[in-house]
Specification:
Distance between the termini: 65 Å
Helix content: 25-40%
Number of strands: 9
CATH architecture of the largest domain: Sandwich
CATH class of the largest domain: Mainly Beta
Number of domains: 2
Number of helices: 1
Shape: elongated
CATH superfamily of the largest domain: Cupredoxins -  blue copper proteins
Structural class: alpha+beta
Radius of gyration: 25 Å
Mean pLDDT: 84
CATH topology of the largest domain: Immunoglobulin-like
């Protein structure tokens, strides 16, 4: 009887481990197939402009780009994405998130006066 219970417990452990492994592998495979729901980037605005000045994004995946202005310049006080009709004020030292869904292509973003320039490369 004791031998029988030990054998049943061992079988249950093996079945449980196999189910856990299969579930983990299925979740990993699904995550690999499903594109990310949101892509993010960080941009710092300095006296030299946008850092980084080029962002590579995936098309049709929601983008959240966080801008943080570190320079006390009126020119750097907003960011404009003309092709996406987005214009956001950038208060000094406060992160501001710009959200949109990028389409394929190359697009510019600038300060309100067009002196600071950056670009999006979307594939």
């Amino acid at each position: 009887m004791r031998k029988h219970l030990t054998l049943m417990a061992a079988c249950a452990a093996i079945i449980g481990a196999a189910a856990f492994t299969a579930g983990t592998l299925n979740a990993e495979a699904k995550a690999a197939k499903d594109p990310p729901k949101v892509q993010t980037a960080q941009v710092t605005v300095t006296a030299d402009g946008y850092e980084p000045s080029t962002l590579n994004l995936k098309k049709d995946v929601r983008a959240k780009i966080t801008f943080t202005r570190k320079v006390d310049s009126e020119c750097a006080s907003e960011v404009v994405f003309p092709d996406y009709k987005v214009r956001k004020k950038l208060p000094l030292n406060k992160p501001v998130v710009v959200e949109f869904t990028p389409k394929a292509g190359t697009f510019k973003f600038t300060c309100g006066m067009g002196m600071y320039k950056g670009k999006l490369v979307v594939k």
